[in-house]
């Protein structure tokens, strides 16, 4: 005897009240499954959508700012290497006098730091990128009570 046939036989042996109770139990289980597998996840997505949209708008704005910044940098005239080195030296003297030393080797510049506050280093790096058109190749920094210690290797602009 097959499973379907035995189920029909068991169903026919049940009384009217028992059939109704089994039908109600099956409907309750089916409704619970429908809720937990179909409706609840969709409601969760709907509830979190406004925060997610706000986060995505922030990310989009940040990316658009970066694109505008990159386009502005592309439009700038190239800086000769000697001028870039002079700009870096002047910025070091202005922002980090006594806390940093610069040494040049071909198309690279190594800046050695000693106790440079984080904000000061960040401002100098922005100035180095914008004014001297250099990029960071390598940074070996460690945090000390006085600030950052270590070295930063910068790539000078092409000639």
Structure write-up:
Helices cover 64% and strands 21% of the residues. The chain has helices at residues 3-13, 16-75, 81-96, 118-132, and strands spanning 100-105, 108-116, 135-144, 147-155. The chain is α+β, with helices and mostly antiparallel strands and 159 residues long. The protein has four helices and four strands. The chain has a four-stranded antiparallel sheet, with helices on one face. A hairpin with a 2-residue loop joins strand 1 (100-105) and strand 2 (108-116).
In terms of topology, how is this protein built?
Elements: H1 3-13, H2 16-75, H3 81-96, E1 100-105, E2 108-116, H4 118-132, E3 135-144, E4 147-155
Antiparallel strand pairs: 1-2, 2-4, 3-4
Helix pairs in contact: 3-4
Instruction: Report how far the terminal alpha carbons are from each other.
Output: 89 Å
Helicity range: 55-70%
Major sheet: arrangement of strands: 1-2-4-3
In sequence order, what are the helices and strands, one letter per element? HHHEEHEE
Overall SS class = alpha+beta
Shape by Cα distribution: rod-shaped
Number of strands: 4
Q: Report the C-alpha radius of gyration, rounded.
A: 34 Å
Low-confidence stretches: none
List the quaternary state of the chains. single chain
């Amino acid at each position: 005897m097959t499973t379907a046939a035995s189920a029909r036989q068991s169903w026919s042996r049940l009384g009217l009240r028992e059939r109704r109770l089994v039908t109600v139990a099956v409907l309750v289980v089916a409704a619970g499954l429908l809720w937990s597998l179909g409706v609840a996840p969709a409601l969760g997505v709907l509830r979190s959508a406004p925060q997610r949209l706000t986060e995505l708008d922030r990310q989009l704005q940040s990316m658009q700012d970066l694109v505008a910044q990159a386009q502005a940098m592309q439009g700038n005239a190239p800086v000769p290497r000697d001028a870039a080195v002079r700009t870096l030296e002047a910025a070091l003297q202005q922002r980090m006098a006594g806390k940093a030393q610069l040494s040049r080797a071909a198309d690279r510049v190594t800046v050695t730091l000693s106790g440079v506050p984080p904000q000061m280093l960040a401002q100098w790096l922005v100035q180095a990128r914008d004014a001297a058109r250099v990029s960071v190749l390598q940074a070996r920094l460690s945090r000390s009570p006085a600030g950052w210690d270590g070295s930063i290797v910068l790539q000078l602009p092409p000639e």
